[in-house]
Design brief:
- The chain has 482 residues and is mainly alpha-helical.
- It folds into two domains: 417 residues, Growth Hormone, Chain: A; 52 residues.
- Helix content is 76%, strand content 1%.
- The chain is built from 18 helices and two strands.
- A two-stranded antiparallel sheet has the order 1-2.
- The N and C termini lie close together (8 Å).
Length: 482
């Protein structure tokens, strides 16, 4: 039976017009929360499953690894088979994997289920921006992307707080079971409201590109995780892993240049503007990576529990959401370099404020002003970045653009956690400091490095990013078919 629900942005009910946005936001919220929600549940998992420290590390890292490896390929598959079909399939995989995580009776099963959850999450995040791009146009697209970017910011901060609540009052298994009803609601909304997107006629699956990129992404992400955990950037295993990544990247570029229908159009990177936009995505992701060490400072040094830590991070999440929703949606007719550059400027200034005010006697509220500025920067730059990336490719390659940006975001976060970890440790090991002052010094350096990177990216954005505000042509899809 085929179900037809017309998408009528002008004449249809107002609520139905925004159902695709609600579906995308619910799915994105789940997958972003699940990158951090397990952090506060790890001790309970260890006791329940008899898991070792190495097991617990991979419960966290395998999800990140799967996202990095599969996101670009998932975006490409969306272009081939339709964003709606891939998005719906990703929801089913994510829900099934979440059920397996909640039912796991040993660490090995939990790790395998987390990997499968990452595959579903990659397919979801690799198609979300393309779904928004095909569902909305003009000012409505700017509003939709603004709200979605704000939800991502809230999800990043909500993970530890939600995980703490569920683990404390229910069980660590509840952090996975809660995905099931959310997935069902999202699936129904997606089936009823998301239209079939344009597909590339005659194109085939780029198996060679997928394989070489998978090897590159796996090696690079694993190398970053290993270096961040052990601080062994120059050890033989780490250098060998990075060498494999370099070789695989060269092979990937060569393969894609010879493909008639590549999953990533390498020619895009001949544009300095597009390349700088991707680097700006990385710089913004590093600002989120700094939250890892902020959480350590809040919990291990100041003694806040998981719930209080989540509350302490609310200023950034709330400001990001408000800025995306009420400012970002008004930037659809503003040149990308203005919104991206201004956002990075605010991120840099906010990071600098945190890096300059925290000392051994600081309380949690000392970081609030800086987090407000960072959140505003993320909220302003996000919609502009997303819109610029979508405008850089034809509509039928929206999945490629979405997957590329999500992949750069994932690499930026993995790189940020690894590099900022070295910065944090180096600052805390300076002789003559008590524990509280040493941790404060570590936070200072983490945020000052983040500030420097953000301000540098800001300069590149203003100087290099070109193009007027994107003005997408064409109407939204006529309908959704099941």
């Amino acid at each position: 039976m085929r179900l037809s629900v017309p998408y009528l942005p002008e004449k249809g009910p107002e609520m139905r017009k925004w159902w695709p946005l609600v579906a995308v936001c619910l799915g994105s919220f789940m997958l972003i929360v699940d990158t951090t929600v397990v952090t506060v549940a790890l001790p309970d998992m260890a006791g329940s499953l008899g898991a070792s420290l190495a097991h617990l590390q991979w419960v966290m890292n395998i999800y990140t690894l799967a996202l990095a490896v599969m996101t670009l390929s998932a975006g490409s598959l969306g272009d081939l088979f339709g964003q709606r079909k891939v998005f719906v399939t990703s929801l089913v995989i994510f829900a099934g994997a979440s059920l397996l995580c909640g039912l796991a009776q040993n660490a090995e099963v939990l790790i395998a289920a987390r990997a499968l959850q990452g595959v579903g999450g990659a397919a979801m995040i690799g198609t979300t921006l393309a779904v928004l791009g095909s569902s909305y146009s003009g000012k409505e697209r700017g509003s939709a992307i603004g709200v979605w970017a704000g939800v991502l910011g809230i999800a990043a901060a909500a993970g530890p707080m939600l995980g703490g609540l569920l683990t404390q009052y229910l069980s660590w298994r509840a952090i996975f079971f809660i995905n099931l009803p959310v997935s069902v609601v999202t699936l129904v909304l997606a089936l009823l409201s998301i239209g079939d997107s344009a597909r590339r006629e005659g194109a085939r699956i780029d198996f060679a590109g997928m394989l070489t990129f998978a090897v590159f992404a796996s090696a690079l992400t694993y190398g970053l995780i290993r270096a961040g955990e052990h601080g062994d950037w120059t050890s033989a295993p780490t250098l060998s892993t990075f060498a494999v990544a370099v070789v695989a990247l060269v092979a990937f570029v060569l393969v894609e240049q010879r493909q008639e229908h590549p999953m990533l159009d390498i020619a895009l990177f001949r544009s300095a503007s597009f390349t700088v936009i991707m680097l700006c995505v990385v710089a913004t992701s590093v600002s989120f990576a700094s939250l890892v060490y902020t959480s350590i400072w809040l919990q291990n040094v100041l003694g806040l529990d998981a719930l209080a830590t989540g509350i302490a991070l609310i200023p950034m999440a709330l400001t990001s959401f408000l800025a995306s929703t009420f400012i970002g949606k008004r930037l659809h007719n503003v040149a990308p370099k203005i919104s991206i550059g201004t956002g990075l400027l605010l991120i840099g200034l906010g990071s600098g404020v945190v890096g300059l005010v925290v000392d051994g006697g600081s309380s949690w509220y000392a970081i609030a002003p800086g987090l407000v500025l960072i959140g505003a920067g993320v909220g302003i730059s996000g919609p502009g970045t997303n819109g610029a990336v979508l405008a850089s490719v034809p509509p039928e390659r929206g999945g490629m653009a979405s997957g590329a940006m999500a992949t750069f975001r994932q690499f930026g976060q993995a790189l940020g956690v690894a590099v900022l970890g070295l910065v944090y440790v180096a600052a805390t090991e300076i002789p003559g400091q008590d524990a509280r002052s040493a941790a404060a010094a570590g936070i200072d350096q983490v945020y000052l490095v983040t500030a420097g990177l953000s301000l540098l990216a800001c300069l590149f954005a203003f100087a290099v990013v070109r193009g007027a505000a994107p003005k997408p042509a064409g109407a939204a899809p006529a309908g959704a078919r099941g």
